[in-house]
Amino acid sequence: MSIPKLVLVSNRIPISFSTEDGELKGQPSSGGLVTSLEPLLKVHGGIWVGSGGTEDSPQIRKILKEASGDNPYKFAPLFLTEEEQSNFYEGFSNEIVWPLFHDLQSRCNFDPRYWEFYERVNRKFADAVEEASSPDDLIWIHDYQLMQVAKSLRDRRPGARLAFFLHIPFPSPDIFAKLPWRQQILVDLLAHDLIGVQTGRDQRNLIACLRCFVPSVKISGRDKGRVVVSEHGRTHIEAFPISIDFHAFNEQSSSAPVLDRVQQIKTRTHDIQIAVGVDRLDYTKGIPERLKAFGYFLRNYPAFHRKVELIQIVVPSREGIPRYDQLKREVERLVTHVNGEFSEPGWVPINYIYRAVPRDELIAIYRAADVALITSLKDGMNLVAKEYCAAKTEANGVLVLSEFAGAAPELRVGAILVNPYDEVGVGAALQRALEMRPEERRRRMLRMRHLIRQADIHTWRDRFFEALEKTAAAAEVHS
Ligand code: ADQ
């Protein structure tokens, strides 16, 4: 399969900036989109277009140039004004689309001003893509902040190859109906040749929304790949469950530094079983719900006192947005509350870490953990679930996974599925996981590892590009 030059477009380039001792520094960002896409660009090369923040300066350009370093890809940053950042990103993207697409409509703020900026900034992204790319390049746009970029590009380059991948869930028509700009968003999405979503459920929801709100389109094909014919032409819509670089996690998990670190962790925790939670700070991840369920578990299963510890790692995210600052305080309050109620000298039930953790450390914690506890209220996929399994080379851990995570349909072959809103159910699942016999742990974990090994990030990319080739071939037949 020949892969054309790739122009990857996402809201942010994967570097965040901060000032330390008066000096501007760049660090690699954490998050699912970066974890999944960076390995692809490292293999194929190309250009990554995304916002570099709100301040352009020679210093920032220098940091980005250095960060590209030996990588075969380059950054093409654009810069937003404070007003754009606030209304497009914090406003439309994060106060409307993010909560709505995660079924949390009561958290939405449908401010019409946000829409104006969403359209304007999407056009600005299209300008940046046009400048950074050539007409034959494959332009691959990512995620919910950029649903209108293709529309602007299509107007300027009718023959462009445009693909889109949505990392978050697509809601059902009942929920999507609340969006005042519902029809416009759907019509503009159809400017892509290919739209990838995470799961069959998301694909069905998108098709159902098109039927409801853009009745003029013609929809054909079966579940595997649907084709929508609209005024823009043909758009292929398919589910591509995203994954991780299984081999990288698997190998790093058996590296000397990781094994040393696991040994240190095990020596400290001794015969205490470890449950782990790893999340970006976000209300969709169900962190307060998990902490409450853990408190419930300790209250109702006293035999586990001094026998289990929850390591909860939270990476700061969307700092400065009031709702996220509030969530941080809520998480801290719950950690203090549970620890205050149950701690004893020599045993603190929740070990709370609020920072980005280096990859070696993260993998060592996964490897040392007997249970991963993932309680997203809704999640596009949840890569942590897959990373945990890939790091468990000894197949000796149990995955407790929210049934509302996109990973659930795949990982149900081995995970214990839970409803994150049901603290009694999560408590019972945790008991089952902690008491599960080694043979059953192994059987379940091997099934999940097999699945993730087969359907890793490289398979995901190949499937996506194959679909794109087929789409191009079909378009030629119909032209
Ligand atoms: P995210 O919402 O960011 O991704 P997720 O898929 O769980 O969610 O990925 C989080 C990533 O951040 C993982 O790679 C994890 O290792 C890393 N991470 C989390 N906490 C960390 C910490 N403290 N230190 C270092 N790294 C940390 C979005 C969607 C998801 C979808 C992905 C990919 O919301 O549903 O799975 O995109 O499509």
Oligomer: single chain
Spatial strand arrangement across the major sheet: 5-4-1-6-7-8-11-10-9
**Outline, from the CA principal axes?**
globular
What is the terminal separation in angstroms?
Answer: 23 Å
3D architecture notes:
- With 479 residues, this protein is an alpha/beta fold.
- It contains 18 helices and 17 strands.
- The strands form 3 sheets. It has a 9-stranded mixed sheet, with helices on both faces. A 6-stranded parallel sheet has the order 14-13-12-15-16-17, sandwiched between helices.
- It is globular and about 70 Å long.
- The protein starts with 5 loop residues before the first strand and ends with a helix.
- The mean pLDDT is 94.
- It binds adenosine-5'-diphosphate-glucose.
- Adenosine-5'-diphosphate-glucose (ADQ) is lined by residues 30-33, 35-36, 167-168, 242, 278-280, 313, 315, 356-357, 362, 379-384, 387, 406.
Short recap of the structure:
The protein has 479 residues and is an alpha/beta fold.
Give the topology, please.
Blueprint: E1 6-12, E2 15-20, E3 23-28, H1 32-44, E4 46-51, H2 58-68, E5 73-78, H3 82-101, H4 112-132, E6 138-142, H5 149-156, E7 161-165, H6 173-176, H7 182-189, E8 194-197, H8 200-213, E9 218-222, E10 225-230, E11 233-239, H9 246-253, H10 256-269, E12 273-280, H11 287-300, E13 308-315, H12 322-342, E14 350-354, H13 359-368, E15 371-374, H14 383-391, E16 398-402, H15 408-411, E17 416-418, H16 423-435, H17 438-454, H18 457-478
Parallel strand pairs: 1-4, 1-6, 4-5, 6-7, 7-8, 8-11, 12-13, 12-15, 13-14, 15-16, 16-17
Antiparallel strand pairs: 2-3, 9-10, 10-11
The chain binds adenosine-5'-diphosphate-glucose (ADQ).
Residues 30-33, 35-36, 167-168, 242, 278-280, 313, 315, 356-357, 362, 379-384, 387, 406 line the site of adenosine-5'-diphosphate-glucose.
